[in-house]
Write a structure and sequence with these properties.
single chain, Serine Threonine Protein Phosphatase 5, Tetratricopeptide repeat, nine-stranded mixed sheet, seven-stranded mixed sheet, 35% helix, Translation initiation factor eIF2B subunit epsilon, guanyl-nucleotide exchange factor activity
Length: 734
């Protein structure tokens, strides 16, 4: 077994253009489907990487196509591929003249006819659209051991059973197989059986067996380990065009035992390995999600992580009332398969919800859309106010000002993020292939700047060094996005990479060696913007008992403050200090509200609290100038407050926050009365709202504002003269 680790293992990687038909809506003309992105690598790159990672030393890429442009596209990609440059395995394009091969059978006959390429031992044949993390060298060694013990074992066929990983959605081609319970010999293969149909098993399949194990819900991995004797079968029989036709003929033939060609059934899920095939839009969506969220390991590992409470997400397990859906999709919808949608050069209308979908190249996503569990292919445009959550953003996607990239997103290379787009802080990000600038021209212009690094390696090599001696090193250079004052800084990477956005949470199982192994989430190190004001205020401006209550209640507030409030306060504070427009700030706040599923009244009170904290009054300056500054600030942001204060409850919430600020912040005595008068003066509150709020009583007000009843009683006493004046003015008017 030790010697088996030193021999050369050959793999034939099949790129079959016939399998691209169901993916035609996702690719441009003459573009192979294997160049679709799998996060920020292509399917072809990942297949090459995974074969080499699995112990393959030589890879022959064979193209099945009758179009010269198709073969040329694969050839050009292999010449410029990062895997081809850095990998240790030899990679050769196996071509049949200027055009490709016509079938897998022709590929095998070409392999047999060339002495320099003909394998002397077992070899692998796998489809490029098969995404797996199998250890091919171990599987090949097991196949060789069976073949040496019994030469009739000439093939090992790989399957993946869905039921072992129930959180993987059951899309796609399920096959039914019959297996000998003792030897795992494949005796029956049916790729298209329907539920409820009758199944007839021939007598020669039963043989002397009394028991036959049927396996349903299987995914055919389109990956086989073959002995060299199989090449002789294809050389002597030109009727064999496809490998599965050859295997079914061997299985169904009455002379199967006589010819001695037996096929071994291997379920990768029983080994804790993963494999799924991309055969249509639905399966492409599922494979990309499985890859991005780390479902490439064993079910036992995933179960252990779940028991430990680590963030392993089960995105596609939804209750009946929350089924994956798509609503308000724009015109020119070109293709739809189950829960996955692909459209080309279409528009996602405003206020749409796009969930569990694939959006193809060139789609324009309008304002205020909600994008979740979705793959956005190349050159999409996401307008302001959109929320993108748990999505995969591919090359050249433009994120416009005011859009929100939420947690769990994987951002591909050359994504253009405009100024003002919202990126949550405190996450690990990765070096981009090129600098992410604020405009496409800048991005293209700065591409040459990042072509090399100090150690001579290319920073855009997302697969990293494939040398096993360096396998323990991170293939990415992680940096922590943090905030110092009001300027963004990133530690561990140069200035030119400050705007890099390769970040994702820890969604990958331990022990995996894949391009995204080292993704993890860091704790948010930003200081809370809800901290106290300066402690150097004049003691004559405050009552001593108020200061004591303020410190205690503020400490409690900081301990229980939610991420929503912290992020909300940070957004408002940034808008105030940067003097953003009310429209742009409203878009950011609306996106934040939708992301956390909050109501408008949850926003409006925090706007007022931030304005108060930023006013001179909060620094102990209680003169007329400070009152005027606060009045000017309220006038400045009046339109923003009114957008979220359209309901009675929202206006009541303004008074609740005013009361809370008057108690918790370091503010002058009788500030509550001053603040309410200012709010009334700028037409943010009406007499009716003030009277109804005061009539609720001290206990209700204390509960709503989270202050003590005695404090609420003092605030009402402060407000009583103003309420009396309003009542008298109303009587005179009547």
């Amino acid at each position: 077994m030790e010697a088996s680790n030193n021999y050369e293992l050959l793999a034939v990687l099949v790129v079959d253009s016939r399998r691209d038909r169901n993916l035609s809506t996702l690719v441009r003309a003459e573009q192979p489907a294997c160049l679709l992105p799998l996060c920020n690598v292509t399917l072809l790159e990942f297949a090459l990487y995974q074969l080499e990672r699995g112990g393959v030393t030589e890879i022959l890429v064979s193209v099945i196509s009758n179009k010269q442009a198709y073969v040329a596209a694969i050839s050009r990609f292999l010449e410029t591929s990062r895997v081809s440059e850095r990998g240790r395995a030899r990679k050769t394009l196996l071509a049949a003249g200027t055009r490709g091969f016509s079938s897998v059978g022709e590929v095998l006959r070409e392999l047999d006819s060339r002495e320099s390429l003909r394998p002397k031992k077992e070899f692998i044949i796998v489809d490029v659209l098969s995404v797996s993390n199998a250890n091919y060298r171990v599987i090949a060694a097991e196949h060789r051991s069976r073949h040496e013990a019994d030469s009739s074992w000439t093939a090992t066929c790989l399957f993946f059973r869905h039921s072992s990983m129930p959180f993987i959605n059951r899309h796609g081609h399920g096959v039914l197989v019959g297996v000998d319970a003792n030897s795992n010999q494949l005796l029956l293969y049916n790729p298209s059986i329907d539920a409820g149909s009758c199944l007839f098993i021939k007598n020669h399949v039963w043989g002397e067996r009394d028991y036959l194990r049927l396996q349903t819900g299987l995914c055919d991995c389109l990956c086989d380990i073959l002995s060299p004797e199989v090449l002789i079968e294809f050389r002597e029989n030109f009727d064999y065009e496809e490998l599965r036709d050859y295997m079914r003929n061997k299985i169904e033939s009455d002379f199967m035992e006589v010819t001695g060609n037996r096929i071994y059934y291997l379920d990768l899920s029983e080994r804790g390995e993963y494999c799924r095939c991309v055969h249509d839009v639905s399966s492409y969506f599922q494979v990309a999600k499985d890859f991005a969220h780390g479902w490439l390991g064993s079910p036992a590992q995933t179960h252990e992580l779940r028991e430990a409470g680590l963030p392993v997400k089960n995105l596609l397990s939804r209750s009946a009332e929350k089924r994956p859906s798509i609503e308000s999709w724009g015109p020119e919808m070109s293709h739809q398969v189950e829960n996955s949608v692909a459209a080309s050069n279409s528009t996602v209308w405003a206020d749409s919800r796009v969930i569990d979908c694939v959006i193809s190249a060139g789609v324009h996503v309008s304002e205020q859309c909600y994008i979740e569990n979705t793959i956005l292919l190349d050159e999409c445009v996401v307008e302001k106010g959109c929320i993108i959550r748990d999505a995969i953003l591919c090359r050249n996607t433009r994120i416009m000002k005011g859009a929100r990239i939420d947690g769990g997103c994987v951002v591909g290379p050359d994504v253009v993020v405009s100024e003002g787009a919202h990126i949550p802080e405190g996450h690990v990000i990765f070096k981009p292939q090129t600098r992410v600038s604020e405009s496409p021209t800048e991005s293209a212009g700065s591409e040459s700047e990042d072509t090399s690094s100090q150690d001579g390696s290319r920073p855009d090599d997302v697969l990293g060094d494939l040398d096993e001696s360096a396998s323990d090193r991170s293939v990415h250079s992680p940096v922590l996005l943090s905030k110092i004052g009001h300027d963004w800084r990133s530690r561990g990477v140069g200035e030119r990479n400050h705007s890099s956005l390769y970040r994702c949470e820890k969604r990958f199982l331990r022990g995996l060696r894949n391009p995204f192994e080292y993704c993890f989430t860091l704790e948010d190190e930003l200081e809370s913007v809800l901290s106290t004001s300066n402690e150097s205020e004049s003691p004559t401006s405050f009552s001593e008992d108020e200061c004591e209550v303020t410190r205690a209640e503020l400490a409690e507030q900081e301990c229980t403050d939610s991420p929503f409030k912290r992020e909300l306060a940070e957004t408002i504070l940034r808008a105030v200090r940067n003097d953003n427009t009310a429209d742009d700030t409203a878009v950011e706040l609306s996106s934040l509200r939708l992301a956390y599923d909050r109501l408008p009244e949850d926003i409006v009170g925090e706007i007022l609290a931030t304005l108060v904290r930023e006013s001179p009054l909060n620094r102990g300056d209680a003169n007329a100038h400070a009152i005027h500054a606060l009045r000017s600030s309220l006038f400045r942001w009046k339109s923003l407050i009114q957008r979220f204060a359209s309901t009675k409850e929202a206006k009541m919430r303004i008074l609740d926050h005013s009361a809370a600020c008057s108690v918790r912040e370091m503010l002058p005595t009788n500030f509550f009365s001053y603040l309410v008068q200012l709010l009334y003066e700028v037409d943010l509150l009406e007499e009716r709202i003030l009277f109804e709020w005061a009539q609720m009583g001290t206990e209700t007000i204390g509960a709503r504002a989270h202050i003590s009843t005695s404090r609420a009683e003092k605030l009402l006493a402060e407000l009583e003269p103003f309420l009396k004046w309003l009542a008298e003015a109303e009587e005179e008017q009547e």
